[in-house]
Amino acid sequence: MAKINREDIHIISRHSNWLEISIKNTLNQDVYNDKDAWYKFLKLFFISLGVGFTTAGIIFFFAYNWADLHKFIKIGLIEALIIIIIGTILVSKFQPLIKNILLTGASVIVGVLFAVFGQIYQTGANAYDFFLGWTLFIALWVLVSNFAPLWLVFITLINTTLILYAEQVAQNWSNLFLFTLLFGINTILLILALAGKKFSSEIKIPKWFTNTLSIASITFCTIGICLGIFDDYQADFYLLIIPASLLYGLGIWYGLKIKSGFYLSIIPFSIIIITSALLLRLSDDFGMLLLICLFIIVSVTSVIANLFKLQKKWIN
Q1: Residues 142, 157: Cα–Cα separation, whole Å
Q2: According to the 3-state scheme, what is the secondary structure of 71-101?
Q3: What pTM value is reported for the model?
Q4: Residue of 181, 122, 132, 125 lying closest to 160 (CA atoms)
Q5: Is residue 87 packed enough to be buried (19+ CB in 10 Å), middle (13-18) or exposed (0-12)?
Q6: Which end of the chain has a smaller Cβ tally under 10 Å, C or N?
Q7: Where do transmembrane segments lie in this chain (predicted)?
Q8: Angle, nearest 10°, between helix axes 286-315 and 263-282?
Q9: Residue 147 CB neighbour total at 10 angstroms
Q10: What is the residue-wise DSSP string for 21-54?
């Protein structure tokens, strides 16, 4: 049985003779956070904040004292810090969540190590190979930890590596092909995350993680289709529009199935942007711009109104 929520309690109280004291006790027990829940949240929050500030402090330390440090000290300090963090994770009896937070901090420091190494030996620390090396060297940690924030860092590095590779090496790649590739990779990762969440109870994937992947996938898709519209419909355009149409339909179906307004909002908004780009491609005179403005106002209002209707239907 699903856990009762605030809306359920309000609906029951309006249509029954449930005593006020019983409602209050139920809210305190099943809805409101108690002292232990707040303690757990603040503990994890301050640990995450401490790891983040420590990592930022390390970065600023090297940036401020760069000229006064010997190259051995620069690299040695970072390597020693990574070894200490990994050693602490392996030998300590911390909770798995705390170890994963420390591992995420260590993964960011790996990037600092590559940046320092590149600056010392002038290897081109801002090139795609910097992010590629960073991605490869934390891949094992990502797979072992199965920690959503670390996976998000890993996926961000993959996207960054591909974008820089297209700019610096694969200059024959069109922008449309690049965004099609990014859309495909992020969509595959999203499908794997949703499938793993459904078919395995041991895999705990937070909702914010799949929502972030969905936003990234739809963003790349929207940009790619708009580029294809303004680039006279190249061959890569059809490579994107066909699977995008199918996945948009599946996304609407999935949003209705799980009663989630998230997918039922970002997909229509993407379609509105694409339709506006198509209208602008047909003409860019004053009349068309006015029509596009009216279309956006009416369509966005319609989407929001339908979302409110669906939400009310689901609640009742």
Answers
A1: 12
A2: HHHHHHHHHHHHHHHHHHHHHCCCCHHHHHH
A3: 0.77
A4: 132
A5: exposed
A6: N
A7: 44-66, 72-94, 101-121, 176-196, 208-230, 236-255, 262-280, 286-308
A8: 170
A9: 21
A10: HHHHHHHHHHTS--HHHHHHHHHHHHHHHHHHHH
Mean pLDDT per 10-residue interval, the chain, length 316 residues: 56 62 62 62 68 70 65 76 86 83 86 76 65 89 86 92 86 85 92 77 76 92 88 74 89 87 90 90 84 91 88 76
* Sequence spans of domains, the chain: 36-173, 176-316
Give the three-state DSSP class for 109: helix
Cα separations in angstroms, 51 against 44, 56, 63, 106, 147: 11, 9, 19, 9, 15
R_g of the chain, CA atoms, integer Å: 25
Task: Quote the CA–CA distance of 215 and 152 in Å, as a whole number.
Answer: 13
What is the rounded CA–CA span in Å between residue 245 and residue 172? 27
Query: Distance (Å, rounded) from C-alpha 182 to C-alpha 224?
Result: 9
Reduce the DSSP state of residue 169 to 3 states and report it.
coil
| Count of positions (residues) in the chain | 316
CA distance 117 to 4: 54
Q: Given the structure tokens 């990779």, which residue do they identify?
A: 185
